[in-house]
Amino acid sequence: MLERDIIQNWGFANVAENGRTTGFRIHLRNPNYRGLSSSLVDGVGVTVDGRSWSYEETAVELQGRRFPLAELRASTGARWNLDEPASVFVPLEGGLERGVHRVAVDVRLRAPYYPVEFQPNVFRAERPLTLVGGTDGTFKYGVSTYSYTGDMNTSMTLEDVMAEIHDIGATGIEILGEGNIPGYPAPSAEWIDSWHRNIAKYGLTPTNYGSWIDSRMWLDRDLTAQEGHEALARDIRLAAELGFSFVRPKIGVVSLDLQPHPIWEEAVERTLDLAAEKNIVICPEIHAPTPIRHPVVDDYISFVERTGTKNFGLLIDTGVFMTKPSLDGLDGKVPESEEDLPVPLRPLRVPASDLLDVLPYVVFVQAKFYEVDEHLEDLHIPWTDVLRTLKQGGYEGWLSSEYEGRREPYRGSVMVRRQHAMFRRLEAGL
Amino acid sequence: MLERDIIQNWGFANVAENGRTTGFRIHLRNPNYRGLSSSLVDGVGVTVDGRSWSYEETAVELQGRRFPLAELRASTGARWNLDEPASVFVPLEGGLERGVHRVAVDVRLRAPYYPVEFQPNVFRAERPLTLVGGTDGTFKYGVSTYSYTGDMNTSMTLEDVMAEIHDIGATGIEILGEGNIPGYPAPSAEWIDSWHRNIAKYGLTPTNYGSWIDSRMWLDRDLTAQEGHEALARDIRLAAELGFSFVRPKIGVVSLDLQPHPIWEEAVERTLDLAAEKNIVICPEIHAPTPIRHPVVDDYISFVERTGTKNFGLLIDTGVFMTKPSLDGLDGKVPESEEDLPVPLRPLRVPASDLLDVLPYVVFVQAKFYEVDEHLEDLHIPWTDVLRTLKQGGYEGWLSSEYEGRREPYRGSVMVRRQHAMFRRLEAGL
Predict the structure, then answer these.
(1) Predicted-assembly ipTM surpassing the 0.90 threshold
(2) Are B127 and B149 within 8 A, CB to CB?
(3) Could you tell me where in chain B the CATH 2.60.40 domains are found?
(4) A13-131 maps to CATH 2.40.10
(5) B37 touches chain A (CB under 8 A)
(6) Is B149 part of the contact surface with chain A (CB cutoff 8 Å)?
């Protein structure tokens, strides 16, 4: 699927030729109702941050061929189909800086069935776009499909998500097992093949697989420890078959402060041998409103100490570090004080330094966030502290983006790009 | 793809059991970020036009099984996956009337990882929905993919369009060759197979195939008649391979009143033998601002008379009958008089009776429209006149919906459903 906007969010990048950055490119959806021959594409004008390049100065890439205007007009054999993006190359020595840019385009298309006096048709569009830029990488970067909730199955396929992750230069994909696997818990062999094919195609590593132990599956009784084990084992087998290294079971809770159901310990312990056999680390998430210093976390660490297992650890959801409340779920009703906020929305303000106590047990970090603005500033999470602490503590695992802000169409893609541009900018200062 | 709204536009229909209409159904997208077991779906409350059915009164259908609430809560082995709709059955003797209804739902989902005090999570949604209702059919009804411009390739696949057409009880599909065929003009054998498989799956007949003779393909010279013939022949071969009966070439024009390029006659004549061999009728469209009584139409009819061909005819676009201007393209700037409107937006007000003169030559009707309101009234096209005249003149061909109003997401689907409900209501009075 392409994005609805003519200007695509993905594909915006500098272009290097022979080791020199000679310009940048923008991907466009065909704004017409029909596909057309390349010679009917009469160039694309581009404006970025107020600087303009006329349609005579850019080049249009269609089906792998780059056409300066004169060649485009005389061309044969190439087309701009409705299901294929065009790429506009804009010459600019050194390219654009990492960050958010205001981009506008004038796409000029000729239609012989209109009187020539009214030609070409000009389709204008504008949109802020984020140039992520590469990195050597202090951390391993990934993205959770959760970031695209609402877009997936309506305007993005799983393959589109993979392409998006690849496009921002991240290499890890985190999924929700019961969510992203068609026919879960028994996907077809054909689907499993396509999963592996696409993982290879987009150069990705399967990271964490989200699962659930639905302790209150029925109203009249809770799951037994054996049933909890069976649920977890089922997901570990499937996760391993798909190449994942981590499984996060979301365990049912029994109290307002999110104590996990007491079956958790036995259910997990019965599954440790399987996890070891499948090279999977089971990692429940430490998630607001549970802070890092909390009996739940102590229990998990005691479990590791008691069993000596290498197949159980902590997943830290960075929502615990939130310093300002996200008001996205409140329909504009800003409360007078934080005490008036629903508990899950109150910032926990866990100091990043709390991480150091538990870091030896941390196997995965979900980079939870709600909004990064056009200056690449996160409005809620103190990333400089968090990243510095992770680096100081020697964390070498994944940072897996988990966008959880407003679910307007395409906002997840836009925000994940901004978060990754921000990470790469921050890395330089660590 | 599913629609973004929780309440799906498609699937809204009365349900007959043993020949009796016992209720109606509504299709829903899973509003959660995860898939879940059927026992965690705690019923769906429904309100239609102010009348409510509680979550205890409806039944939820998942993966082909219908569960009343008690059975749903105790169920095992069924799921509501994110890529599959649930269907809610609402009991109502005799069902709902054809037309637009205001529908609201409360979808109740249980999440064991939330404290039980805050359960279930209730997802509320509302939306007007159109119940199309069946028909014996004075005419053959179809839909053009053009109706879904902007949605296709962003939120609808071609198969989604086929499913949508089937869902409203229409049987014809019209496509744009250079637009809807991946890899046009040389689709893969695999794609052609999938086309035929889906045509059979959704019980559709390929009707009209839109093509172009791009006379101004290059700036320095026009297409020759031979090149025009080759373009048309290419599309006729492809259309025939896909099972179409009609090909509409959109021919380049040479004047402000849309005189077709003079190559048209020779280009078409050279193609008549191929069209006869392939059982294709070539049918240029009579489209505003060209009315029915016009030299262009006379020329087309003379061509038929002179050649005696049965493989050329007229396609009438019902935009010529428009009585009130559609202001959709004007960004809210309503002009003082019609003379201030751009020519293509001025209503031509061709009397429907003009059809009778040319009906022997009419082989296809594109049911162009811009908006049908919640009372099933078209705001621009006088359908009662048009349908009555077509019936009076003995037209037995296709009426193929061509929605051309505003391109907001999903509006095409909504409007096509309304148009078909309107057609079926009007049929009764013809």
Answers:
(1) yes
(2) no
(3) 13-131
(4) no
(5) yes
(6) yes
